[in-house]
Specification:
- The chain is an alpha/beta fold and 298 residues long.
- The chain has 9 helices and 13 strands.
- The protein folds into 2 domains: 224 residues, Spore Coat Polysaccharide Biosynthesis Protein SpsA, Chain A (Alpha-Beta Complex), CATH 3.90.550; 64 residues.
- 41% of the residues lie in helices and 24% in strands.
- Strands 1, 2, 3, 4, 5, 6, 7, 10, 11, 12 and 13 form an 11-stranded mixed β-sheet that branches. A two-stranded antiparallel sheet has the order 8-9.
- Helix 2 links the parallel strand 2 and strand 3.
- The longest helix is centred in the last third of the chain and has 21 residues.
- The N and C termini lie far apart (46 Å).
């Protein structure tokens, strides 16, 4: 019996050097993997830094789809997912281009993917600049506020994450997704230009009764917020605020707003104070604009 095709998909927008480094790790993974039936795909979101030409020259075996403009994370990934599905892929492994992937990652994820009720799997994700410190092992979800719980498990890795665990949320920067889930649940919601698309996607998957697994033997290292200008940059704060409003207005109904509304207002006030104390005035303005834009669009 032939093995299901796996598409390893990464999205690029004007991060040529990051993408080349990521692809180097992915091609190393392909050479060392026990799983032979996978392809690597770069979806370029209208880059102007020569990324497409550089990838084609250095990695001629890598497939490239060049979008005419920056579609954002969700819509850009969906271009790649539609291509993978059209090619008959049984799995799509979505990997941020600002990551370095351990050569054994795909093998380890696929080793846990067989049960039919497993829909998504993610590796243990470390900070690239602090390679023994955990950035995300996913998390739980508060049933009342819909917020993620557990803080991604962030902190020094002292052996506390050695077993496969079931999660309510997995970070979208490295996510193995089954074809069956994509066909039943759908692709990413393209209203989320950046951020919260993974929260929405995981929630929809769980509501369809799929299990989400974090597989710690699979590992990657993440250059956090590189695509949005860094943590607490105006661009990062704008899109985080905008997408948060879209997410909660999409999923919160009725009396639940009596809990979620005050909670989200408190979160917004906290962020404004935090940024103001650090004199990040441009980020304060961008955050407030994001809240307003998200409300108008939802």
């Amino acid at each position: 019996m032939s093995l299901p095709l796996v598409y390893v998909l990464t999205l690029n927008w004007n991060r040529c050097q990051d993408t080349l480094a990521c692809l180097e790790s992915l091609t190393r993974m392909r050479r060392q993997s026990r799983y032979p039936n996978f392809r690597i795909l770069v979806v370029d979101n209208g880059s102007t830094d020569g990324s497409v030409e550089a990838v084609a020259a250095r990695f001629p075996e890598v497939e490239i789809i060049a979008n005419e403009r920056n579609l954002g994370f969700a819509a850009g990934c969906n271009v790649g997912l539609r291509h993978a599905l059209a090619q008959g892929a049984g799995y799509a492994f979505i990997v941020n281009n600002d990551t370095i992937v351990d050569p054994r990652s795909l093998d380890e994820l696929l080793a846990e993917a067989a049960p039919p009720d497993v829909g998504m799997l993610a590796p243990r994700i470390y900070y690239h600049d602090d390679p023994t410190c955990v950035w995300s092992v996913g998390g739980g979800r508060n049933p009342l506020t819909l917020e993620m719980t557990g803080g991604h498990g962030r902190g020094p890795d002292v052996g506390q994450w050695e077993e496969v665990v079931e999660r309510e949320y997995l970070a979208g920067c490295a996510l193995l997704v089954k074809r069956d889930l994509l066909e039943r649940v759908g692709l990413f919601d393209e209203r989320f230009f950046m951020y919260y698309e993974d929260m929405d996607f995981c929630l929809r998957g769980r509501r369809a009764d799929y299990r989400l697994l974090m597989v710690p033997r699979a590992k990657i290292w993440h250059k956090v917020a590189a695509s949005s200008g860094g943590s607490d940059s105006p661009q990062e704060r704008y899109h985080m605020a905008r997408s948060s409003v879209l997410f909660f207005r999409k999923h919160v109904r009725g009396a639940r707003w009596l809990i979620v509304g005050p909670y989200r207002l408190g979160s917004a006030v906290k962020w404004v104070i935090r940024l103001a104390l650090r004199r990040r005035w441009a980020s304060v303005g961008a955050y407030l604009r994001g809240l307003g834009d998200g409300w108008r669009l939802s």
